[in-house]
């Protein structure tokens, strides 16, 4: 009688009994190490450990140890499952090695997911055909022929729709824009919110525009978000021909420099184009700020041109009438301790003007050349922290004043901007000096105001630092 050790199945059984546990332990350690490193290969190794290695061991036991014929149905079923898992392993391994670790901006990173899905479907279809042909002896040649003929018929029937899909796939692959970019096409200008096989969705101020990808692929368009940090707008204005061009350009540039939408570390510029027309180039952070920046610039220019004595749109400013001047001087008279004679002598030397909402009236660190009294409106005092953040200090109303350090010629510690339209009365330094020379108590009150404002700024900065 033949001994057990002389049987071929014995060595296969011993090999599977020893090799399977050792393989499981080794693969477990490898998978744990890959998981700790965050590697994409951890999933393929897990597939080998959990499915392929046990299935392969079971298949060897059936064929070699128990000597079940390869044509038996259990063997074929097991081989089919093993082949399908090997297909999944191949797809997972290719995805982990080629695409998950692809550098940003490379062709592997730019491939749309739809291309990968189609490629996976083709690989799975071919793999299953090979499995059924090799293991089950199925004739798959006729099936591929039928599918090819059907594809040709469908392609001819749906060539317009297929053409749009192909255009969409090519557009996705090239990626001339991404979700969130601002584009300017023939029929729309706005932000890209969706790109699918057939069309691109662009959100504009008037709604959502859906543009077929075939139209985009056949036309030219501008991507306003690329390269980043180079977007700007151009605003045209008109002034009187008698206004000095240099003064107009300086005023326009100064207004544009104060816009909150201005791109950091960028400078606007203004030039004259002749016939009283001027163009101001304003660099912005993003196209989303275009409308707001343009509206704010034009609104502030209206106020700034009147303060500078320039005639925007060739229109004179008649706001500072004699009646308004007299009424404004009477309003500030108690603060300056003015009597009737003082009011009459001071009125010809004061200036009545306006600021628009959110416009800066006083900048921290500057030395004021005049005192500014609030006649109408509200003004917010602010300070700047160490890292440049804006800290609110207090709100000034009618009768309050700015520029208290005009006489001392010291930089102000606080800034100020208009909360709404603000009317102010401005008195030059020389006229203020003449007043305090005759009124010592007024000088003491101005000094006390400087100390109070500095204390308010210190408290506001301390509170902001504590928070």
TrEMBL record:
<dbReference type="InterPro" id="IPR018490">
    <property type="entry name" value="cNMP-bd_dom_sf"/>
</dbReference>
<keyword id="KW-1133">Transmembrane helix</keyword>
<dbReference type="Pfam" id="PF00924">
    <property type="entry name" value="MS_channel_2nd"/>
</dbReference>
<keyword id="KW-0812">Transmembrane</keyword>
<dbReference type="InterPro" id="IPR023408">
    <property type="entry name" value="MscS_beta-dom_sf"/>
</dbReference>
<dbReference type="InterPro" id="IPR010920">
    <property type="entry name" value="LSM_dom_sf"/>
</dbReference>
<feature type="domain" description="Cyclic nucleotide-binding">
    <location>
        <begin position="338"/>
        <end position="453"/>
    </location>
</feature>
<dbReference type="InterPro" id="IPR014710">
    <property type="entry name" value="RmlC-like_jellyroll"/>
</dbReference>
<feature type="transmembrane region" description="Helical">
    <location>
        <begin position="118"/>
        <end position="137"/>
    </location>
</feature>
<dbReference type="GO" id="GO:0016020">
    <property type="term" value="C:membrane"/>
</dbReference>
<feature type="transmembrane region" description="Helical">
    <location>
        <begin position="77"/>
        <end position="98"/>
    </location>
</feature>
<dbReference type="InterPro" id="IPR016846">
    <property type="entry name" value="cNMP-bd_ion_channel"/>
</dbReference>
<dbReference type="InterPro" id="IPR049142">
    <property type="entry name" value="MS_channel_1st"/>
</dbReference>
<protein>
    <submittedName>
        <fullName>Mechanosensitive ion channel</fullName>
    </submittedName>
</protein>
<feature type="transmembrane region" description="Helical">
    <location>
        <begin position="12"/>
        <end position="34"/>
    </location>
</feature>
<dbReference type="InterPro" id="IPR000595">
    <property type="entry name" value="cNMP-bd_dom"/>
</dbReference>
<keyword id="KW-0472">Membrane</keyword>
<dbReference type="GO" id="GO:0055085">
    <property type="term" value="P:transmembrane transport"/>
</dbReference>
<dbReference type="Pfam" id="PF00027">
    <property type="entry name" value="cNMP_binding"/>
</dbReference>
<dbReference type="Pfam" id="PF21088">
    <property type="entry name" value="MS_channel_1st"/>
</dbReference>
<feature type="transmembrane region" description="Helical">
    <location>
        <begin position="143"/>
        <end position="173"/>
    </location>
</feature>
<dbReference type="InterPro" id="IPR006685">
    <property type="entry name" value="MscS_channel_2nd"/>
</dbReference>
<feature type="transmembrane region" description="Helical">
    <location>
        <begin position="46"/>
        <end position="65"/>
    </location>
</feature>
């Amino acid at each position: 009688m033949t001994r057990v050790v002389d049987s071929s199945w014995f060595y296969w059984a011993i090999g599977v009994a020893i090799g399977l546990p050792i393989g499981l332990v080794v693969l477990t350690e490898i998978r744990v190490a890959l998981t700790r490193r965050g590697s994409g290969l951890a999933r393929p190794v897990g597939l080998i450990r959990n499915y392929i290695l046990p299935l392969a061991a079971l298949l060897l036991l059936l064929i070699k140890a128990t000597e079940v014929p390869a044509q038996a149905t259990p063997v074929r079923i097991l081989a089919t499952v093993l082949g399908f898992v090997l297909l999944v392993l191949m797809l997972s391994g290719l995805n982990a090695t080629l695409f998950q670790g692809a550098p940003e901006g490379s062709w592997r990173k730019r491939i749309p997911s739809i291309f990968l899905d189609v490629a996976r479907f083709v690989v799975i279809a071919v793999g299953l055909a090979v499995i059924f042909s090799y293991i089950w002896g199925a004739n798959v040649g006729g099936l591929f022929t039928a599918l090819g003929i059907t594809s040709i018929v469908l392609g001819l029937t749906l060539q317009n729709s297929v053409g749009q899909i192909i255009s969409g796939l090519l557009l996705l692959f090239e990626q001339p824009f991404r979700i969130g970019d601002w584009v300017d096409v023939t029929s729309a200008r706005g932000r890209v919110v969706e790109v699918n096989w057939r069309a691109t969705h662009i959100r504009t101020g008037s709604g959502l525009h859906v543009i077929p990808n075939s139209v985009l692929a056949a036309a030219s368009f501008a991507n306003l978000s690329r390269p980043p940090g180079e977007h700007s707008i151009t605003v045209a204005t008109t002034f009187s021909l008698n206004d000095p061009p240099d003064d107009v350009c300086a005023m326009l540039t100064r207004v544009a420099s104060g816009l909150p939408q201005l791109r950091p570390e960028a400078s606007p510029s203004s030039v004259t184009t002749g016939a009283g027309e001027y163009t101001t180039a304003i660099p912005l952070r993003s196209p989303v700020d275009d409308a707001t920046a343009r509206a704010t610039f034009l609104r502030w220019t209206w106020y700034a041109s009147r303060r500078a004595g320039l005639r925007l749109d060739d229109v004179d400013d008649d706001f500072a009438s004699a009646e308004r001047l007299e009424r404004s001087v009477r309003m500030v008279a108690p603060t300056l301790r003015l009597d009737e004679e003082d009011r009459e002598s001071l009125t010809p030397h004061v200036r009545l003007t306006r600021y628009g909402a959110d416009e800066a009236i006083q900048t921290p660190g500057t030395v004021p050349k005049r005192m500014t009294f609030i006649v109408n409106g509200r003004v917010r005092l602010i300070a700047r922290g160490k890292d440049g953040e804006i800290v609110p200090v207090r709100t000034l109303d009618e009768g309050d004043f700015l520029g208290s350090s005009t006489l001392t010629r010291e930089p102000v510690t606080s800034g100020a901007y208009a909360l709404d339209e603000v009317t102010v009365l401005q008195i030059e330094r020389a006229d203020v000096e003449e007043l305090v020379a005759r009124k010592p108590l007024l000088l003491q009150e101005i000094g006390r105001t400087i100390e109070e404002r500095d204390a308010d700024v210190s408290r506001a900065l301390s509170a902001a630092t504590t928070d």
